[in-house]
Amino acid sequence: MTHEPRRPVPLSAVRALALETQQLTTPLDASPEPNPDTIYETVERLGCVQIDTLQMVRRSQYIALWSRLGRYDPADFNRLIYDPAARRLYEYWQHAASIIPLKYFRYSLPLMARYRNGYGWREWDKQPENQAVIEQVRAHLRANGGARVGDFEYDGPKRGPWWDWKPVKAALEYLFDRGEAMVADRPNFQRVYDLRERVLPEWVDTTEPSFEEMVCFRLDQAARVAGIATGRQLIAHAYLKPGEAASALRSLVEQGALVEVEAETARGSTTTMLVHRDNLPLLEQALDGAISTGRTTFLSPFDSLFWTTGRDEMVFGFRQRLEAYVPAPKRIWGYFCLPILHRDRLIGRFDVKLDRKTGTLNLRALYLEPGVAPDEQLVADIAAAMRDFLVFHDAHDLVIERSDPAGFGEKLLAAL
C-alpha cells in the first residue's frame, strides 16, 4: 500500500527517483546484455530519444542508449527503425526530431493533422510553383518507391531564406510533416522517404486521438519518465507550449494522476513538484534508501535527463549548456561537452571530438565541478566508463588536452 510521501522529500530521494525513471541507476557492470529487445525496451520506457545531426562522437540518439546500456551494436538499433522485418520504431517530431516506439504512433496523428491544416508552412504550400513540386514528388514516390533528396535533379537557384532548401527537399519535408511520407531508411544519415503505407506496419494502431488527448498523453508520459519535476518542467519535457498544456496539467493533478509533493532542492530550499501516481511506490523506495544510484556514465547534451528545463540546477546543482552554437570567445566549457554522471551527482563534463581516422578520442577540455575531489573511487569509476565509451566508438587512444583540476586528467590516464 502506498502512503502519503514524507514531506519534504529529501534531495537524495529526489535525485534517486529522477535517475531511476531515466534508467540511470544500474552500475555499468550490472547492465543487461544489450540486444534488440533491451534496446527497444529502453526507448519505450523513455518515450523517445532525440535525434541530432552533430557528430563529434556518435550522434545523440546512439549516445542516449549507450548511457543506459553500455556498449551495444548500433546496427541493432538501426534495424528497429529502418528494417521492415524488425521495425518497432519510427522517426517523427516529439522532442524535436525523435525516434519513437510505433506503439505510440497514434499520438503523432494530431500533429500531422495540424500540418495538413496549414501549421508551420507559412503559406509555402499555397504558391503554385511549390504545389507543382509537391505533386511531382508525391507522384515520384508512388511510382518509384523510397527516395532521397539527391535522387531528384535540381539546377535552379537557392530560393530565399526559408531554410535555403531546394524545392524538392522542402516538398519531401512537407509530405513528412503531414504524415503522407515517412523515413524508410537512413544510409549515411541521409533520409530515404517513402509513402506511409509502404513504411508503417499493418499492426500499428492508427486511431486518431484529439489534440487534447495527445497533450494529456504526452504530459502523463513525461511525468512517468521524469520521475519528479515541477509542472513547468514537465511541460518542457513533453515539448509542449505552456498555453496548450496548462489546462491538461491541472486536470491530471485534479484527477490524481499527478501527485504534488514538497521536495528539497540543491539550493537548500523546498518547492512543489509532481510525481506520477504510478511512481509513488518508487518514491517510497527512494525515501527508504532502497534505490541504489550506482551508475557512472556520460550523457549527450540532448539526453532526456535534461528535457525538464531548469531541473539540472534545481536538483543537481549543475548547469547543462550546449555551446556548439555559441561564438567561440563566449564559450565557458567548449563546443560539445558531455556531462559526467557519477552515482547521484553530475560531477563534471568534457569537450570531446573523435578522430575517426586514427581511432583517437580527444578530450579538448575536462572539468570537474567546484568542490568535487578526484578521489580514487571516482577516478576508477570514470575510467571504467571511459573504457566502455572508447570501445563503443572503435577508439583505442585517449588524449586529454586540458584538465581542470590539472591532476585529474593525469589520474584518469593512469587508471586507463
Can you walk through the features of this model?
This protein is α+β, with helices and mostly antiparallel strands. Helix content is 38%, strand content 17%. It contains 15 helices and 13 strands. The protein has helices at residues 11-21, 36-46, 60-69, 74-82, 109-116, 128-144, 167-178, 196-199, 211-226, 231-237, 242-254, 280-287, 311-316, 376-392, 406-415, and strands at residues 49-50, 89-94, 96-101, 181-185, 192-195, 258-264, 270-276, 296-298, 337-342, 345-355, 360-368, 397-400, 403-404. Strands 8, 9, 10, 11, 12 and 13 form a six-stranded mixed sheet that branches. Strand 9 (337-342) and strand 10 form a beta hairpin. Helix 1 crosses helix 12, helix 6 (128-144) packs across helix 7 and helix 9 (211-226) crosses helix 11. The radius of gyration is 23 Å and the shape is globular. The N and C termini lie far apart (47 Å). The model has no long low-confidence stretch (mean pLDDT 94).
Strand percentage lies at 15-25%
- What is the residue-averaged pLDDT? 94
Summed up, the helix count is: 15
Write the H/E string, N to C.
Answer: HHEHHEEHHHEEHHHHEEHEHEEEHEEH
Molecular shape? globular
Helix percent reads: 25-40%
Count of distinct strands: 13
Query: What is the makeup of the main sheet?
Result: 6 strands, mixed
User: What distance lies between the first and last C-alpha atoms, to the nearest angstrom?
Assistant: 47 Å
By secondary-structure content and strand pairing, the structural class works out as alpha+beta
Contiguous uncertain segments of 5+ residues: none
C-alpha Rg, in Å?
A: 23 Å
